[in-house]
Amino acid sequence: MKVTLFATCLVDMFQSDVGKATVEVLERLGCEIDFPESQVCCGQPAYNSGYVKESKEAMKKMIDTFADAEYVVSPSGSCAYMFHEYQHVFKGDPIWEPKARKLAEKTYELTQFIVDVLKIEDVGARLEGKATYHTSCHMTRLLGVQKAPMILLNHVKGLDFTELPGKEQCCGFGGTFSVKMAQISEQMVDEKVQHVEETEAQYLIGADAGCLMNIGGRINRQGKPIKVMHIAEILNSR
Amino acid sequence: MAMKIGNENFSDRVGKGINNSFMRGAVSGAQDSIGARRLNAVEELGNWEEWRSHGEEIRQHVLENLDYYLEQLSDNIAKRGGHVFFAATPEEANDYIRGVIKKKDAKKVVKSKSMVTEEINLNASLEEIGCEVIETDLGEYILQVDDHDPPSHLVAPALHKNREQVREVFTEKLGYKKSSDPTELAQHAREMLRQDYLTADVGITGCNFAVAETGSFALVTNEGNADLVTSLPQTQITVMGMERLVPTFEELEVLVSMLTRSAVGQKLPSYVTVLTGPREELDVDGPEEFHLVVIDNGRSRILGTEFQSVLQCIRCAACLNACPVYRHVGGHSYGSIYSGPIGAVLSPLLGGYDEYKELPYASTLCGACSEVCPVKIPLHDLLHKHRQVIVEKEGKAPVSEKLLMKAFGLGAASPKLYKWGSKLAPSAMNPFTSDDKISKGPGPLKAWTDIRDFPAPSKERFRDWYKNRDKGGNQS
Ligand code: SF4
């Protein structure tokens, strides 16, 4: 199966290990990977801040870049959701709305793709240790992917899993919110870190680079012995 | 109390909220317990999503036909000898109500809980003409006794106070001598209020829902105080926001059930008081004179716009109880009697962007509010729409941000520019980087690194790794 990777700018620039793990897991599951070089940012930071006009050019670029893909897969729930949002942004536009709808129909978040399209629940991963999982808001509520990451994690051998208390609460990232409303964001991420600590997990797992950068950045700042990992890296552990 | 509360700027209000550990304990505790109760109460129905769609339909239908139902309501009230007044502004409403009070030569008013009377600043307006106003809802009563402290929550207005603080207020202002046990506190308030019910000349209520077909009003309470407010005084005035209508009792039943499940996690409230105009010949109690005041105050301006769905709101406060921002900053931080997600959407519409331009940004757009709203208001989408209006129509965004976003538009849309920028990033960030992280960032990064580390850009971008790797050989 041919998969076109939408790596996201955070992964491309800051977390290339997550991108590598995504490629390796998908290849191991029999997919052929394509990474179009012309991909840029999905436009979410500007879009969410209200700069819709400014973000539309980036969106069009992305729609064209992935026009020929059979499946588009992204290791970020929030960015995959953004591709689903394009059709609403271009609502009423005779050219771009249909194109955007097509893109939405074939775009999947990584775990969703593995479970729903590849129909695989056990990727053969192994990792010893105590772990908990952060459910990111956009992926869970807006993209509607709830079960897939749990199904995959439950099959990881050696992983001792504890549910995160208050898991439905946002970590306080929210893109530009994290700097625009820094004082509120700090309180939110602190409560999140406190909940992670309560689980006594060694690993905090997530499926969104943004949330992980936020929670992980706070954990590092406080010097807590918790390792923050993207779910692609977990699924790639053997 | 008008809609606006306090004179401090947004960030000072938020700072104060964050530092108020009493309030935060009370709010997070209430969110956790009410949140769990709400979930049980809606799951027990088995098909909550269908209920939500039905609730949404009812409210949308009313908004689409608002003229018709308001006329029907008004006709039915007039038929029973009641008076109806449509007020475009708070001033018009207050003038009318003052007129009634003066004509009756009323000295004392008892009130049941009503947000819309807070919105128009009714109490102060009546006190100005020498009329004593007494709040009978326990939460509102506490706030009134505490020198008119503003409400911080739609349903539990005194949520920001714990019982120790309530005991202190009662001790200082009312000579209370007992413990901070909630039952004893409530008992004391009831004793103080009993005399007031009997001696009040006028009762004023809000309105949860008006029923157009019969000209009736429903008041939902857990204390039963609305029963007394509407049965003892000779004159009754009901104040309602112009959108708070349902066509018939059938829809009323649906929405009351959704309201109490969403608000407090109960199947039914302890009391639903329904009244229909002034006392008739065979009635044993009820007022002799009845006035309905319908408040517009900017609502008709919202009709027909992209924000219309905000008027579907039934003020259940489920969105406040689910909101992670409200959790940490509390209601007063919003600077409006309407706080939480619904407040962040509604306050700029009713009170203007000048006053409330920060509120739409006080959200991560996490969607927790939209998920719990019983009438399916897309709250996080509306917050996003506000941002768009602020940037594109109102031009109120900071210049530095505008420039940054323009640059973003250029960079993100151009693969060449993006590639070049991301390639340069590691060396540009070099001076700030140690141990693969940035602890003190420049420019906009500073707000981030004041709180948390920022990752240093990867030495090899993903796209370079992908390009260079030997596809057939050892992967990674
Ligand atoms: S917006 Fe929805 S959840 Fe919030 S108070 Fe109104 S009805 Fe309740």
UniProtKB/TrEMBL annotation, chain A:
GO molecular function terms listed in the Swiss-Prot or TrEMBL record: oxidoreductase activity
InterPro entries reported for this sequence: Cys_rich_dom (IPR004017), LutA (IPR022822)
Boundaries of every Cysteine-rich domain copy: 3-83, 132-215
GO biological process: lactate metabolic process
GO cellular component terms, A-Z: cytosol
Recorded superkingdom: Bacteria
Function noted in UniProt: Is involved in L-lactate degradation and allows cells to grow with lactate as the sole carbon source.
Family in the record: Belongs to the LutA/YkgE family.
Name used for this protein in its record: Lactate utilization protein A
Species, as recorded: Mesobacillus persicus
From TrEMBL, chain B:
Ranges for region Disordered: 431-452
Domain LUD: 70-295
Positions with a binding annotation for [4Fe-4S] cluster 1: 313, 316, 319, 373
InterPro entries linked to this entry: 4Fe4S_Fe-S-bd (IPR017896), FTHF_cligase-like_sf (IPR024185), Helical_ferredxn (IPR009051), LUD_dom (IPR003741), LutB (IPR022825), LutB/LldF (IPR004452), LutB_C (IPR024569), NagB/RpiA_transferase-like (IPR037171)
Positions of the Lactate utilization protein B C-terminal domain: 385-470
Keyword Phosphoprotein recorded: no
Residues that bind [4Fe-4S] cluster 2: 323, 366, 369
One Pfam family in the UniProt entry: LutB_C
GO molecular function, one term: metal ion binding
Biological process (GO), any one: lactate metabolic process
Ranges for domain 4Fe-4S ferredoxin-type: 310-377
Record's keyword annotation contains Metal-binding: yes
Key words of the record: 4Fe-4S, Electron transport, Iron, Iron-sulfur, Metal-binding, Repeat, Transport
NCBIfam families named in the record: LutB/LldF family L-lactate oxidation iron-sulfur protein (TIGR00273)
Similarity-based family: Belongs to the LutB/YkgF family.
Entry function: Is involved in L-lactate degradation and allows cells to grow with lactate as the sole carbon source. Has probably a role as an electron transporter during oxidation of L-lactate.
Name of this chain's protein: Lactate utilization protein B
The organism of origin for this protein: Mesobacillus persicus
Gene from which the chain derives: lutB
